[in-house]
């Protein structure tokens, strides 16, 4: 009993010591340096754009909200380890200047900005990024945060709103707007059992990723047919192949080298209602195709799926106006990554003072210190050159 009390006291002391520690708060200069580093990573491998955005979403789900903790044992996080690895390498260089949770969130902001500047018009704004997210005590290690992620087989928009309202306090409009993040990146058989991009590579830049509202146009403006995955009969995804390829659950999804765009039920459910079993197949007698608003339904085919969805008009509005979507998306993305504990602040500017000439430096100036100051000088020069 006595030993138990000692252990408990020790645990309380350690936890409160961690909690009382003041996490580093990144300055504008640190963020400017990180912006450059993250852009280099994105240019090197554009797949990281979608990866960093997905990572921020997953980091912000769960008890601690955005907390720098990703549980790589959770199968819903499959595929994220490559992105935490690359950001953790960067983190080791900046660990005394930013928290891991801030870095994960900032990497997503840089990625969204990077991908939107190649889009048609509106640009995802970065200047609202706040700092001060706290890392969980096991940040950087695999963590057992018991997070629950949304499933891929949602049947209507209410199920989506339910999840996003509980998790981030979002309403219908915000939920529909946030899902447009799926204009980036792709699904991979080895991670989720689904395969293909939401927006095919042919319309993406550098093999991946323009952040715009085309995702909504895809949902409402073409015919979609449900296919079962040949690799996993518990996975059903929506594809473009029409009646000649068969419809309904019986027909395999095609896994061409460059498959057309695909959707999962949780995308399609923004504008349609379905009746599905636990594997994402139609319930008997409820088979349908997602009909386009533009073309008439294919003759002699299954009926069109139910379009009486509260999310449908929003999808059409966003499909027709990228600027409105980008405005809503930016707002809701910041709502997702801004922990609601009121501790976040906009970064302040702390320009580095010019270094004294070498003969006036103290003897104990270490090589590390020199390196750090040299980095700060570069950041300072960049800021000086920027127009105010
Ligand atoms: C109902 C909600 C959601 C479901 C069911 C869902 C499901 C998925 C699945 C199954 C994948 C594929 C993972 C893989 O195979 O590698 C994925 C990828 C992705 N998700 Fe979601 N997601 C949801 C919401 C979100 C939200 C809210 C965001 C961001 C704000 C997001 C951003 C992404 C991105 C960018 C990718 C592509 C990742 C890459 O290319 O590596 N998702 N999502």
TrEMBL record:
<dbReference type="InterPro" id="IPR044831">
    <property type="entry name" value="Ccp1-like"/>
</dbReference>
<feature type="region of interest" description="Disordered">
    <location>
        <begin position="347"/>
        <end position="388"/>
    </location>
</feature>
<feature type="domain" description="Plant heme peroxidase family profile">
    <location>
        <begin position="13"/>
        <end position="186"/>
    </location>
</feature>
<keyword id="KW-0560">Oxidoreductase</keyword>
<keyword id="KW-0575">Peroxidase</keyword>
<feature type="signal peptide">
    <location>
        <begin position="1"/>
        <end position="17"/>
    </location>
</feature>
<dbReference type="GO" id="GO:0004601">
    <property type="term" value="F:peroxidase activity"/>
</dbReference>
<dbReference type="GO" id="GO:0034599">
    <property type="term" value="P:cellular response to oxidative stress"/>
</dbReference>
<comment type="similarity">
    <text>Belongs to the peroxidase family.</text>
</comment>
<keyword id="KW-0349">Heme</keyword>
<dbReference type="Pfam" id="PF00141">
    <property type="entry name" value="peroxidase"/>
</dbReference>
<keyword id="KW-0479">Metal-binding</keyword>
<feature type="compositionally biased region" description="Basic and acidic residues">
    <location>
        <begin position="379"/>
        <end position="388"/>
    </location>
</feature>
<protein>
    <recommendedName>
        <fullName>Plant heme peroxidase family profile domain-containing protein</fullName>
    </recommendedName>
</protein>
<dbReference type="GO" id="GO:0046872">
    <property type="term" value="F:metal ion binding"/>
</dbReference>
<dbReference type="GO" id="GO:0000302">
    <property type="term" value="P:response to reactive oxygen species"/>
</dbReference>
<dbReference type="GO" id="GO:0042744">
    <property type="term" value="P:hydrogen peroxide catabolic process"/>
</dbReference>
<dbReference type="GO" id="GO:0020037">
    <property type="term" value="F:heme binding"/>
</dbReference>
<dbReference type="InterPro" id="IPR010255">
    <property type="entry name" value="Haem_peroxidase_sf"/>
</dbReference>
<dbReference type="InterPro" id="IPR002016">
    <property type="entry name" value="Haem_peroxidase"/>
</dbReference>
<keyword id="KW-0408">Iron</keyword>
<keyword id="KW-0732">Signal</keyword>
<dbReference type="InterPro" id="IPR019793">
    <property type="entry name" value="Peroxidases_heam-ligand_BS"/>
</dbReference>
């Amino acid at each position: 009993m006595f030993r138990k009390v000692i252990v408990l006291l020790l645990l309380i002391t350690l936890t409160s010591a961690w909690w009382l520690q003041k996490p580093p708060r990144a300055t504008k200069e640190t963020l400017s340096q990180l912006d450059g580093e993250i852009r280099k990573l994105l240019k090197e491998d554009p797949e990281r754009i979608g990866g960093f955005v997905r990572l921020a979403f997953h980091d912000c789900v769960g008890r601690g909200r955005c907390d720098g903790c990703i549980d790589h044992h959770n199968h819903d996080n499959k595929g994220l380890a490559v992105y935490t690895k690359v950001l953790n390498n960067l983190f080791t260089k900046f660990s005394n200047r930013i928290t891991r949770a801030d870095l994960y969130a900032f990497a997503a902001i840089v990625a969204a900005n990077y991908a939107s500047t190649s889009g048609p018009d509106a640009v995802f704004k970065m200047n609202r990024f706040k700092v001060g997210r706290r890392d969980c005590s096991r940040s950087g290690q695999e963590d057992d945060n018991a997070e629950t992620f949304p499933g891929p087989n949602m049947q209507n928009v209410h199920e989506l709103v339910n999840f996003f309202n509980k998790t981030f306090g979002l309403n219908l409009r915000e939920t529909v707007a946030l899902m447009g993040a799926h204009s980036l990146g792709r699904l991979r058989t080895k991670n989720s059992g689904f395969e293909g991009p939401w927006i095919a590579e042919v319309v993406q830049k550098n093999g991946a990723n323009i952040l715009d509202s085309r995702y909504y146009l895809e949902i409402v403006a073409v015919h979609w047919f449900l296919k079962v995955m040949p690799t996993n009969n518990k996975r059903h995804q929506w594809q473009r192949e029409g009646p000649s390829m068969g419809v309904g659950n019986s027909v395999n999804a095609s896994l061409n080298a460059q498959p057309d765009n695909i959707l999962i039920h949780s995308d399609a459910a923004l504008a349609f209602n379905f009746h599905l079993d636990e594997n994402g197949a139609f319930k008997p007698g409820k088979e349908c195709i997602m009909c386009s608003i533009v073309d008439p339904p294919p003759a002699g085919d299954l009926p069109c799926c139910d379009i009486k969805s509260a999310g449908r008009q929003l999808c059409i509005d966003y499909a027709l106006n990228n600027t409105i979507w980008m405005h809503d998306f930016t707002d809701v993305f910041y709502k997702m990554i801004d922990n609601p504990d009121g501790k976040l602040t906009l970064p302040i500017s702390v320009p580095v003072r010019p270094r004294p000439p070498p003969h006036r430096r103290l003897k104990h100036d270490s090589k590390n210190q020199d390196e750090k100051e040299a980095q700060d000088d570069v950041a300072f020069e960049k800021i000086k050159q920027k127009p105010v």
